[in-house]
Here is the input.
Amino acid sequence: MFKLRKSYLIIFTVLILMVSSVFAYAAMVGDQLTFAAEEGWQRIENTNPSFSYLPSGWTIASQTHYSGGSSTYATAIGSSIQFNFTGDKIRLIFSKHENLVTADVNIDGVITNVSFGSGVQPRTLVYENLTLSDQEHYCIITSTAIGASSYFDFDAIEIDNNAEIKSYDNTIAVTPNTPSDLSVTAGDSQIDLTWTAITDATGYNVKRATIAGGPYNTIANNITASDYTDSSVTNDTTYYYVVSAINAEGESLNSNEVSVTPIASVVTGNAILVITMTNGNVKEYDLSMTEVNDFIDWYDERAAGSGEAYFIFNKDYNLGPYQSQNEYIVFEAISSFEVKQY
Here is the structure.
């Protein structure tokens, strides 16, 4: 009896693992899809009246290997499929043929060139976008290359379960697409950011956090360029950045997050610091550039009304009987100074 129960337990466990793997699977671009949409998606077949096929010359082919039993195909470069849809994601399903086919996918003015690949395969997932703003979008799919013995063979699209497909209208007002390819370069007390410009954006918001994932503080509002320099950072502190796009209709989702840590520049070399005093005396000091910069930082702070009233030069030469020799230069007694680096 124990062995029998143990066998049932093993079989039950294997079944659970098999079922879990099925539900965990999500198709990737290039995969052949099944005849039914995956969980979270609804499939819209090629015969839906919201699809516009331009120009004339499209043909409907009926075959059991197509999703819904048919496809709509063209053989001319420049053939296009136009429609609108709602939601925040979309998939395009075409049939592949013997030779290469490529197309431009235009969603709200952002164009991506897509290669379908070669080799015969119906119900192929050729394009997927999961990062759209949750709103209405327009879409134009235009053939740009059709290989010999091949077709621009449209099968279906998939959109979110709660989304709708609509007739084509490129005059709809949409919030901008999400900025992409945000990258950063660290400097000394500054960080340079760049990202890919968005066609329908009128500006961008730059956001920063000191914790991965936020919360973010907006450090620049409605800037028009696709780059920004953040000079309000502290060296050796890690910062996390995202960027969003804006227009009259609203704000996009945040871009990819990037992290960076600014680091102070390494100063090398030496210099003669020549200080002219208000009484006409001239003092010279042979210093490292680090020591020169320390003096300049003190001078700037004192000129701004903070810092010590004097700067100390530690003389470690010609000490004679003394353990140390310090010279104090009072800020008010300085007329000018000069740095001669060598």
